[in-house]
Amino acid sequence: MNRDDPASWSGEPAEFDDYAAGYEGGLDNPVKRMMGNSADQFIAVKTRWLLRREPKLRTGGLAVLDYGCGVGSLMRVLAETGARADFTGCDISAGMLRQVEKRWPAKLGKTPVLAPQQGARTPFADGQFDIATISAVLHHVPVAERPAVYAELGRVLKPGGRIYVFEHNPRNPLVRYVIARTPIDRNAILLDPTEVRHGLLDVARYDLDTDYLMFMPPGLAFLRSVDRALTWLPLGAQYVVAARKPA
Ligand SMILES: C[S@@+](CC[C@H](N)C(=O)[O-])C[C@H]1O[C@@H](n2cnc3c(N)ncnc32)[C@H](O)[C@@H]1O
Hints:
With 247 residues, the protein is of the alpha/beta class.
């Protein structure tokens, strides 16, 4: 396998290989489409939160891993909204990683470094990244395999580094309705922030906090201040668990 050439990656096809070419972030679901007219609007809720939380993303120099990056939307929307980081993406699906290269706009400069996962495992060095994001991935990982993902995120993170786990909030009834009717989520097992916090704490003594996101349809920009005022309320469609590794 040539790590620089996703076309040469071998191995069992991953579940998401089947969805890679047409992947549009679940927007095939009519209820989700009513809330926003592009998948990027949903991703941008997370990237705006990240840019507020990590202002240094704008100035450059941070090494950022997007674990289970899919077609690279989180990295791309981050870059399009002002992030100047050194991006690396990994995924178990070679088909998804090939899409990152295809979809990365030339105006954003070089494509992120891309690498295939072997299960939970990545080829990165210990302590390589300042920030690791994992967005809408864990609910696709079988429960028994999730500890290996938390361990891997902790391994590749520098001391003092941060992990941001974005997930669908199972307490939100509309989320459960949409997930139950979206083909790509047929094997999904949703998880709440408590499970994420416990999973992370089994690996290291992280400082943890949780914000809730996406109370309002992401297409309605004039309601963003409502979202920002409600991050404490455990009913948003999404949540983010933020973890800081001990220095
Ligand atoms: C719903 S997509 C989300 C993609 C991207 N993070 C985003 O927010 O757009 C889930 C991704 O997780 C990847 N993934 C990584 N590790 C996985 C695992 N152990 N089991 C299932 N999916 C996994 C899938 O291949 C897929 O690309």
